[in-house]
Design a protein that fits this description.
eight-stranded mixed β-sheet; 194 residues; 10 strands; alpha/beta; two-stranded antiparallel ribbon; Spore Coat Polysaccharide Biosynthesis Protein SpsA, Chain A
Length: 194
């Protein structure tokens, strides 16, 4: 199926974490022989005219042929990555995903975009909100910056009770993220081909 790329939304891949539970940079971990970040960029490239990587280690991603933004607030978490992407571009909307979602697919992201209305569209599965696979509007930027200046970095707390947010029920496993080597091995086992 042909996908019409969006020029009005910036695709953002967040790759700024410390990967402390994984033990090494999990963006570079392989699932079925392809790195997490390569898989993620391939999905995002199918949907958006422009895709950027926000990271604390830009030198790691120089070969990925995308614009690389160094986090303006190193290791300030996903909220810092959001602010960086808004500050360094003129886009009004960002579709943000984490680099550690090996099952990410275009259908899940298209479902999020289809609900675009208000300040954010955040998927929810099993009662868990997926802030790292969501759509955000620039109108949030002033409050995001204020929150960071007060060292309040939790997106969960930031959006708790906030108006203008669409909470989107999501089925499937496109949101699945991998935090440990054991989880990656389990995923490989589940998806092993005969």
């Amino acid at each position: 199926m042909f996908l019409k790329k969006r020029a009005d939304i910036l695709g953002v891949v967040l790759a700024g974490g410390r990967s402390s539970r994984f033990g090494s940079n999990k963006a570079l971990a392989l699932f079925q022989g392809v790195s997490f970040v390569e898989r993620t960029l391939k999905v995002m490239d199918a949907l958006f005219d422009e895709v950027v990587v926000v990271t604390n280690t830009p030198e790691t991603y120089q070969s990925c042929h995308h614009r690389i933004f160094q986090d303006m607030m190193p290791y300030a978490g996903p909220m810092g990555g959001l602010v960086t992407a808004f500050e360094k571009t003129s886009y009004d909307r960002l579709l943000v995903v984490a680099c550690d979602m090996p099952l990410l697919d275009t259908q899940g992201i298209q479902g999020i975009i289809a609900q675009d209305d208000g300040d954010a569209v955040i998927p929810v599965h099993d009662g868990i909100a997926e802030y790292l696979m969501a759509l955000y509007h620039r109108d949030l930027l002033p409050d995001l910056k204020t929150s960071l200046s007060q060292e309040q970095r939790s997106l969960r707390k930031f959006f708790s009770g906030r108006p203008g947010v669409s909470w989107l029920p999501m089925a499937g496993k496109t949101w699945l993220n991998v935090n440990t080597r054991e989880a990656l091995q389990d995923l490989e086992n589940v998806h092993a081909t005969d």
